[in-house]
Amino acid sequence: MAYLGNWPSSPGFQSVDFGAQSQTRVTETQSGRTVRFSTASSKFAARIRYPKIGTTTFRAVQAAATRANGSLNSFDIILPTISDTKTGLSSQTVKVSTAASVGASSIGITSDATSTTILKAGDVVRFENHTKVYMVTADVSSNGAGVATMGIFPNLITALDDDSAGGNTSVTVHQVPFRMFIDKDLQTFKYSNDDFVTVELDLVEEI
């Protein structure tokens, strides 16, 4: 496995299907009662579709998909709309303010945007030096000092240092890159006789 860097930002996507993959084991007792428990951390998945584009423009995508070598190698990709915060505060600086252990579902943070809603439920975030992306579970408001608590899903899979301890762990809240790989080993590019190509790719988050 190898990390290939950033997925080409051009040409842009026509549409993106986005969701989360969860692994849940369900058992049923003789009385009919069901017991359900998670067997792994939830991870995000996407299906990206490109518009009908010229073969010359498409070559950058074809090269990236070929270098991915099926599902072997991973890359960072920004998903339009999904990767962007809906607060309008795209340039705010957010840092982790309180150390958090594996399994934590809420994270103490600080922002230079004070006394306002700094994140919206459904926004996604990624911590510095981490590859996992988390979804914000409820609106997050900062106080007059910029301090706030952020709920995330899934629970934290890697511990976080706090800013006061010198960790200076920043939080990406806009143009959030997802670390993903192609879900299938066979990729098909549909070339037409008019020198255009159509393609869609299924991607899964790497954990």
Walk me through the structure.
There is one protein chain. This protein has one helix spanning about 55-65, and strands at about 5, 15-30, 35-50, 55, 75-80, 95, 105-110, 115-120, 125, 135, 140, 145-155, 170, 175-180, 190, 195-200, 200-205. It has about 210 residues and is mainly beta. The protein has 2 domains: about 5-80 and about 180-205, Phosphorylase Kinase, domain 1 (2-Layer Sandwich); about 95-175, Elongation Factor Tu (Ef-tu), domain 3 (Beta Barrel), CATH 2.40.30.290. A hairpin with a 5-residue loop joins strand 2 and strand 3 (about 35-50). The longest helix is centred in the N-terminal third of the chain and has 13 residues, at about 55-65.
If you consult CATH, what is the topology of the largest domain? Phosphorylase Kinase, domain 1
Count helical runs.
1
Query: Would you state the CATH class of the largest domain?
Result: Alpha Beta
Number of domains: 2
Query: What share of the residues does DSSP label as strand, in percent?
Result: 35-45%
Number of strands: 17
Order of helices and strands: EEEEHEEEEEEEEEEEEE
Give me the side-by-side strand order of the main sheet: 1-5-14-17-3-2
Low-confidence stretches: none
Main sheet, how many strands, which sense, barrel?
Answer: 6 strands, mixed
Query: Into which percent range does the helicity of residues fall?
Result: under 10%
Mean of all residue-level pLDDT scores:
91
Cα gyration radius (Å): 20 Å
Query: What's the CATH architecture of the largest domain?
Result: 2-Layer Sandwich
Q: Give the CA-based shape.
A: globular
Structural class given helices, strands, pairing? mainly beta
* Cα-to-Cα separation, first versus last residue: 13 Å
